[in-house]
Amino acid sequence: MASLNETSCRTCDTLFGTGWVEGWGGADTPLGTGWVEACANYHQRSPSPTGPLSPPHLYNPLHDSDPPAESGDVHVGLGMHRDELLRHVPRPVDVPRGRRRVSCQRAGADRSGGQRHRRRAEDARRDAVLPQHSKLVCPGDDGDGLIISTQYLNRIVSADPMHLEMTVEGGATLKELIGAAAEAGMALPYAPYWWGLTVGGMLSTGAHGSSLRGKGSALHEYVVAMRIVAPAPAAEGYAKVRQLGPGHPDLDAAKVSLGVLGIISQVTLKLQPLFKRSVTFAKYGDADLADRAVTFGNQHEFADMAWYPGQGKVIYRIDDRVPDNVPGNGVFNFVGFRSTATLLLVTNRLAEEGLEATGNAGGRCQYSRLTTSAIAIDGYGLTNNGLLFTGYPVVGFQNKIQSSGGCLDGPHDALLTACPWDPRVRGEFFHQTTVSIPLSEAKDFIQDVQKLRDLNAEAFCGVELYNGILMRYVKSSSAYLGKQDDCLDFDITYYRSHDPAVPRLYEDVLEEVEQMALLKYGGMPHWARTGTSRSTA
Ligand SMILES: Cc1cc2nc3c(=O)[nH]c(=O)nc-3n(C[C@H](O)[C@H](O)[C@H](O)COP(=O)(O)OP(=O)(O)OC[C@H]3O[C@@H](n4cnc5c(N)ncnc54)[C@H](O)[C@@H]3O)c2cc1C
Asked: Which segments carry the region annotation Disordered (predicted)?
């Protein structure tokens, strides 16, 4: 084939795994047999109709009575050919053959035309731009690195309501985890608020929700076992699968490990019986915020606060467990994560750009008051029955309240609607700084920010356009890269120009806040946002 070259083969390897040549040896290969044969030559082996080799049996604490000998590590065969080795790395190559074909159809969707295929292509593009399927990069010499997608490493391996445990693969999303747990009558007690994140991504970055109860709000606190595919020296066969069971001395290192120790392929989590909770958002002035923030987290299990410093207001989340017989079938589909009309996203962005360009800080404050009133009337996305918001409290099952991500399942409408930050439309574009400050320091930090605010309240209206400063509770952890103290975590989100040379309105004030958080109060940035102490979600 004229178009076939080494790069094409490498692309196929990256997309489908190096085993794809064998897996697609048959004549039904959507890419055509020419590709298969030529790529087989490139790999210096013949296409085989039998499909890829089976991976080795790996120890599973839930199903295997005995751990493997001695170290607890399962070594992938010594001296294996690189391609064989990679076949055991959890990549699309390890998913069932039928699924791999779906990947290929996605890749060829544009060529075949037709609505179904266009939809698949749209799915694929959505997958590519929205952060729900992790991609890991293994750098190599001379461009010989690998990108490993965990998109299809997303099985729910087992759910055990008797022992309140569930084992999932590293690419399973929070949504999949929550859904499968609820089906088995279980719940993850605390979680990040956006359910498009993967288990591997959340663990790698110490992702959390908000709570000071039990072990706290971070997902890694509920990990009881993990399986990691880690690099190894040549003498050990280049890669080994490490099973870290309960009490394993390395578990505290691996639970939060920034993706640098290896690929998280399986995780066993300790869950709870499915329960109900009752949510009320209540708005108060911020005069006593500094004192209240310190105690509020101990008063309500799922407490958080959204602070609107420019308006001098705080939305307190009064959110607690209730008995299952309390009536209510509420759902939280947070407005900020819903499919939004592209026209509205573009209009909002243009308005924000206009206010920034003209230095109209007062206009930005009016705009923030307008948008915050609008989402408050809508209950921030809460509904009492899945359809309508009729008032507080909203009572519902944990799996319907804890996280959301409506836009992930939005309509396939040629981008008439999109997630608000979808880069394919010119909608939201922002910086987000996330810093955890020890709870013991939080009062002083808030008071310092209030002093700055009192000098010029208008300087803070920008963060209000992004739902204010979200303040959440995270407990200290035994994980080496977890929090060292009980903390209050501050999410500060604000306008970002598409031109990196253009400053935002009152940039100096927000930078002062960030510097205070990090330097004066010993704040720790979220591991997902450590680039330059700020990044873009
Ligand atoms: C809309 C949105 C809302 C968010 N809300 C919250 C929130 O409420 N609370 C919170 O704490 N955080 C939140 N975050 C941040 C989020 O938790 C982190 O960015 C998280 O890492 C993203 O998960 P991901 O699956 O997209 O991972 P990616 O961004 O793909 O990966 C993040 C890191 O993890 C590594 N990694 C991913 N999978 C694996 C694996 N299987 N094995 C080893 N390493 C792996 C990657 O290499 C990378 O270093 C939010 C992010 C977004 C975009």
From this structure: 44-72, 99-127
9 found inside a domain: no
In the predicted model, what is the mean pLDDT of the chain? Answer: 80
Query: Is 86 a residue whose pLDDT tops 70?
Result: no
The parent domain of residue 401 ranges over: 276-529
Q: Is the CB of 170 under 6 A from ligand 1?
A: yes
Average pLDDT rounded to a whole number, residues 441-449 = 98
Residue 250 pLDDT class (50, 70, 90 cuts): very high
Residue-wise pLDDT tens digits, 89-142 = 333 333 222 222 222 222 222 333 344 444 444 454 445 445 455 667 777 777
pLDDT recorded at residue 138: 72
Answer yes or no: is the C-beta of 51 below 6 A from any ligand 1 atom: no
Q: In sequence order, what are the beta bridge partners of 436?
A: 489, 524
Residue 174 Cα to ligand 1 midpoint, Å, equals: 11
The rounded Å distance from CA 133 to ligand 1 centre is 9
Cβ atoms within 10 A of the Cβ of 63, count?
A: 9
Contact 74/245 with Cβ under 8 angstroms?
Answer: no
Looking at the predicted structure, is the pLDDT value of residue 183 above 60? yes
* Interval between CA 197 and ligand 1 midpoint (Å): 6
Positions of E strands within 271-344: 272-273, 276-285, 304-308, 313-322, 331-332, 340-341
Write the residue with the smallest CA distance to atom 4 of ligand 1: 194
Distance between Cα 198 and ligand 1 center (Å): 7
Residue 174 CB less than 6 A away from ligand 1? no
- Say which DSSP state 247 is in: T
Region class of 19: left (phi > 0), else alpha (psi between -120 and 50), else beta = alpha
Ligand 1 near 204 CB (within 6 A): yes
Residue nearest to atom 52 of ligand 1 (CA): 537
Which atom of ligand 1 lies closest to the CA of 228? Answer: 42
What residue's CA is closest to ligand 1, atom 11? 207
Quick one: average pLDDT of 354-383? 95
Look at residues 273, 308, 328 and tell me which one is the last residue of a structural domain: 273
Span 349-371, average pLDDT: 95
The pLDDT tens digits for 147-167 are 889 999 999 999 999 999 999
How many domains are there within the chain?
2
CA–centroid distance, residue 311 to ligand 1 (Å): 32
Query: Can you give the CATH number for the domain in which 171 is found?
Result: 3.30.465.10
Torsion sign over Cα 43, 49, 51, 54: negative
